[in-house]
Specification:
Elements (H helix, E strand, L loop, with lengths): L8 H9 L5 H20 L3 H7 L4 H15 L3 H25 L1 H81 L3 H15 L7 H60 L11 H6 L19 H13 L2 H19 L12 H23 L6 H19 L9 H20 L5 H32 L5 E3 L2 H10 L15 E3 L4 H20 L7 H27 L5 H28 L11 H30 L16 H17 L5 H24 L7 H25 L21 H6 L6 H11 L9 H7 L5 H10 L15
């Protein structure tokens, strides 16, 4: 018997017609019926089916179907369907019973049971349906509540997420403000960038989000302003330690100078290499890398500067930061360099403070260039440095004329030299400073010349114009060492007391001249490697002016004196000053540190020679003037008939004067000079005596002529004695190689022998007048041999005046 169970369309349609008719309800009904049919098809065995009603398995399989019918409000349809199935099954059972009574009876019983179970099931289904209806209503209500709650929860979740995001933005904003207040600008800037990039977008729909978005540029500007303000504060703090930075840098340079000087002393060949030269840097083993801003004494934190630079770079305002920093550095320079400077001979601390501050300021600039090249370029720093050098020079210049002590200028030079070498070590251009040092060198030189002129004038006024008397060997050796004097004897063989030919003005002046030169070298030693040619030219010009315009000019003015001893001593001193000028020339050429195309020549050598000639001329003038004084008192009676046995009194006094002149006044002069002084004096005397004879009265008696002849003989005898005695004397004041080069071509012996020749014309004139035969003058041969110096006109005039006790028919000499 087939166990196939079919659901009639009519019943299905009937139940379906009671539904809402909607497409979705029909689909659920069909699905439920299909499920029920599948259960029945799977269990189509009647025996099993009957037995199953007695158990729970079948109910478990129907439970989903019932649950589905209740949930879809089709419980009645299900009951009807089950009733239909039951009727069908009864029919099948009846058929089965008819075929088999026993089985039928058994089946009836089973059906009865099924019916009873069905009734029970029906009641259960109805009960379940009722319960499900009640539960379904509550479930629907709860479901609706759940849906409403889920919507509200979703809104709450969304609001909560929005609130959290808003709180996060607010917290970040507050944290940024806190970091700004704590000066954690870089962290604040990063947070601000993160806020603007990642978080503000999530709250952009809120009004406060727009407010925060608009506040981002304001916070960035606040950070920038705070950074610039902190930079100014940092600059102010750096300004306080700038002098200390310079002081430490000076001390480090001074230590290097001392180490290098020690090496130069040990190896003189290194004197051509100065501090900061490649040789010095290579040989300075003790030189450690020194950080001027971070050492044992001082620490300058550059973090605020770096932070400011990086923050402004991140903000895109690095150019503005660069401009503000440059303006700040200019203001710092103005604060370090005062509007005026004052220091005195006793205290140059203000200058030292100025240079320390300038040095520290420049070092900070150099460090900035090396470590932050984007902010400070070498060009901008060098420009600021040049303006600083110019202002330093302008500050120092007005003070220099107020100084009275050259030692103060040396201290100024030392400070400037140390400043130059320190700055050069930090790769700053020091050309302007070297130029200023050169001008300072010239002022220092002028200062020394002025002081030398004052001291020399005082020395000249106090000089006794006498040869120096030396009583002690130590003083003698000291004078020899400073005065370029080479005595004829060794110092050990000199007996004391002894006389030196020059007066005290010469060795004192030599000491001052040496000091003058040494002070120039001492001044230039700090920077001679930069301008050696200019420095040496300045020294040469200064020394030349000193010798010419001070020494030579002062001594030349003293020649106006009428004191013969003073003039003679000045002449001797001039000779030694001329020799000193020659030695100074040699010294300058030997110590020159540059190649010279031509040797150094001092004009003072020629000036001393010229003034010495003036002194020689002045001696001639004074001696001749004295001779004229004696001749003015000469009183010859040209018509006397009385002969005298003694020379004229004026002539005796003149001879005494000349003897004194020879033996004392002129004794220290070179023989070449004394000989020419004598020659000039006696020539002048002879000329004047001849004039006396020529200017005699209308007649000249024989007695008067004989008296005049006796005076001339007396003079000739005196002159002869001078010539012979002077040839035996030695010049105790001169070395063999120290002689007057202007007269070296003249023979001293010839000069001595020529003294008598000064009276030749006078002698020949007197001899002519006393000759028994005056006519022999007309004989050329005799005249040239005996009267060659007598002028014909003089001979004619004198013979005409000469009165003889002979015939008046005497022939007068004719002119040749």
């Amino acid at each position: 018997m087939s166990s196939t169970l079919t659901i009639s369309p009519s019943s299905t349609a009937r139940h379906v017609s009671g539904t809402t008719g909607s497409a979705s309800s029909e689909e659920r009904t069909q699905a439920m019926m299909q499920h029920l049919q599948q259960v029945l098809l799977l269990n189509s065995d009647p025996i099993w089916l009957l037995n199953s009603f007695e158990g729970d398995d079948y109910l478990e399989q129907l439970a989903p179907v019932v649950e589905e019918a209740i949930s879809t409000n089709q419980a009645d349809l299900l009951v009807d369907r089950l009733a239909s199935i039951t009727a069908q099954k009864e029919t099948e059972v009846q058929q089965l019973c008819n075929s088999n009574q026993h089985e039928y009876t058994k089946a009836v019983k089973q059906l009865t049971k099924v019916k009873q179970s069905s009734e029970q099931m029906r009641a259960s289904v109805l009960n379940i349906n009722q319960n499900l209806q009640l539960s379904g209503q509550a479930l629907v209500a709860r479901n609706k509540m759940l849906l409403d709650s889920q919507g509200a929860r979703k809104n709450i979740d969304e609001a909560t997420a929005a609130i959290r995001q808003c709180l996060k933005v607010i917290n970040m904003t507050n944290k940024i403000h806190e970091m700004i207040e704590q000066k954690k600008y870089f962290g604040a800037l990063k947070s601000l960038d993160d806020l603007e990039t990642n978080h503000i977008q999530e709250v952009a729909q809120f009004e406060f989000g727009q407010t925060i978005r608009k506040s981002v540029p304001v916070m960035q500007a606040t950070i920038k302003d705070d950074v610039i303000a902190d930079l100014q504060v940092w600059l102010m703090s750096v300004r306080k330690v700038v002098p200390q930075i310079g002081r430490i840098a000076f001390s480090v340079t001074e230590l290097r100078r001392r180490r290098w000087k020690k090496k130069v002393d040990q190896n003189p060949q290194l004197r051509f290499y100065k501090l900061n030269s490649a040789i010095e840097l290579a040989m300075d083993d003790d030189h450690d890398e020194f950080d001027p801003l971070n050492n044992d004494t001082i620490h300058v934190d550059l973090t605020p500067f770096y932070e400011s630079m990086h923050i402004c770079s991140a903000l895109g305002v690095l150019d503005e930061f660069r401009d503000n920093y440059a303006l700040g550095r200019i203001k710092e320079q103005d604060a370090i360099l005062p509007p005026s400077l004052e220091f005195t001979d006793d205290d140059i601390a203000p200058l030292e403070t100025l240079l320390h501050g300038a040095c520290g300021f420049a070092i900070v600039e150099r460090v900035t260039v090396r470590r932050a090249y984007r902010v400070r370029t070498p060009e901008s720093v060098n420009e600021l440095w040049e303006s600083m050098c110019k202002r330093i020079a302008h500050l120092i210049d007005p003070v220099l004329p107020t100084l009275r002590n050259p030692e103060t200028l040396l201290r100024v030079r030392t400070l400037l030299g140390l400043f130059i070498q320190t700055m050069e070590g930090y790769e700053f251009s020091v050309a302007r400073l070297h130029s200023y040092m050169l001008s300072l060198f010239e002022k220092y030189s002028a200062f020394l010349k002025q002081r030398f002129a004052e001291e020399f004038e005082q020395t000249v006024m106090e000089d006794d114009y006498m040869p120096m008397k030396i009583n002690q060997r130590e003083l003698y050796e000291k004078i020899i060492s400073i005065s370029w004097y080479r005595p004829g004897k060794e110092a050990s063989k000199v007996k004391f007391p002894c006389l030196l030919p020059f007066s005290q003005v010469y060795p004192l002046s030599c000491a001052e001249i040496r000091n003058f030169v040494n002070q120039h070298y001492q001044f230039s030693d700090e920077f001679a490697e930069q301008n050696p040619g200019q420095l040496e030219a300045t020294l040469r010009v200064s020394l030349d002016e000193l010798l010419v315009k001070v020494v030579c000019s002062t001594l030349s003015d003293r020649l106006r004196s009428s004191n013969r001893e003073e003039i003679v001593q000045i002449y001797i001193n001039l000779e030694y000053f001329e020799n000193a000028a020659i030695e100074l020339e040699r010294m300058l050429n030997e110590t020159s540190s540059v190649h010279l195309d031509e040797p150094i020549i001092l004009h003072a050598t020629g000036s001393f020679s010229d003034v010495r000639k003036l002194a020689e001329k002045r001696i001639f003038e004074l001696v001749n003037s004295k001779i004229d004084d004696f001749l003015e008192i000469a009183d010859y009676d040209w018509e006397t008939n009385t002969e005298t046995n003694t020379p004229s009194s004026y002539l005796s006094d003149m001879v005494i004067f000349l003897e004194t002149l020879v033996n004392s006044t002129l004794v220290n002069l070179p023989r070449s000079i004394t000989s020419f002084i004598y020659f000039d004096a006696f020539d002048h005397l002879a000329t004047k005596l001849l004039d006396l004879l020529l200017n005699a009265g209308r007649r000249i008696s024989k007695a008067a002529l004989l008296n005049f002849d006796r005076d001339i003989c007396y003079l000739e005898n005196f002159v002869g004695n001078i010539g012979s005695s002077s040839s035996k004397k030695r010049d105790v004041r001169r070395n063999d190689n120290q002689y007057d080069k202007n007269y070296k071509h003249r023979s001293e012996e010839d000069a001595d022998n020529s003294l008598l020749t000064t009276f030749t014309e006078l002698r020949q004139t007197i001899d002519l007048l006393l000759s028994p035969n005056v006519e022999e003058y007309n004989n050329t041969e005799i005249r040239m041999r005996k009267y060659g110096r007598v002028k014909p006109q003089n001979a004619a005039a004198l013979v005409e005046k000469y009165v003889l006790v002979v015939s008046r028919h005497l022939l007068l000499p004719r002119a040749p």
